[in-house]
Amino acid sequence: MAGASVFIDGEAGTTGLGIRRRLEALDLSVRSIDAEQRRDVGARRAMMAEADLVVLCLPDVASREAAELAAGLSSPPRLLDASTAFRTDRDWVYGFAEMTRAQPDAIAGAARVSNPGCYPTGAIALLRPLIEAGLLPGDHPVSINAVSGYSGGGRAMIEAHERDGGPAFELYGLGLEHKHVPEIQVQAGLALRPIFVPSVGHFRQGMLVSIPLHLDRLPGRVTGAHLRDALAAWYRGAARIRVDDDTDPVGLTGEALAGSDGMELRVHTSERYRHALLTARLDNLGKGASGAAVQNVALMLGLGALPPPAAAAA
Question: What's the CA gap between 37 and 4, in Å, rounded?
């Protein structure tokens, strides 16, 4: 659907700006609302009425209100929502294109798509293939650790880090009630609520998600090679997800994929101790946000294959 019209409601935020920048490289008409009209319901409704697709980059409550606003139009546009409001809603298609073989077609045919969260993208990418392959039981107790660049924390955190330096490292969500947990549980196929411990590092963009496993607590005599082979089979042919064979790097830095829309998955193993560590590395603003959104826009508008992911920052 070359030349289709796209309106980004909430364009001024970090995710919205990232989406707009990526969409400018495609054959689309990306429409913007005047800054003084961003809170004008009538002006936003008019923009929605003229768009083929509306991307919502708003807080949860505002996204729900915007979705209702669009639904009330005589010819509602298709919606892609970047908030957490609809990520476990069965009336919305979950927009992780590589999650299942059927997911791209489901996204392409959907009227309403919910864009995944950054942390869940890494966690689900690691967990769902292993659960589907029977290597990891759905009721296995799972702990997920993750560190994100400070750009994922909103304007106040960004300003604090860039003005004052900010802390080198900070754990948060210590009440174990992080809003991404339901999304991870539902979309990964976990029967038990996972323990999720997020953190922020003093780097602008990037993310590491890690999941430790006791191999002897898994059914059968599972090895690291079994886990790696299952991931490789699941993502074979995926343009934006790579299962890396380098499982013993000196270390992994969170910001290595800043500026890229790709993701790297690894399985690190100590067969001596029967321990494994699953890791996902991505850009929280790329594959974890705007990059995934543009993948979904391309699928929803039938634009065909996107260019390869942008190269990581030097």
Answer: 23
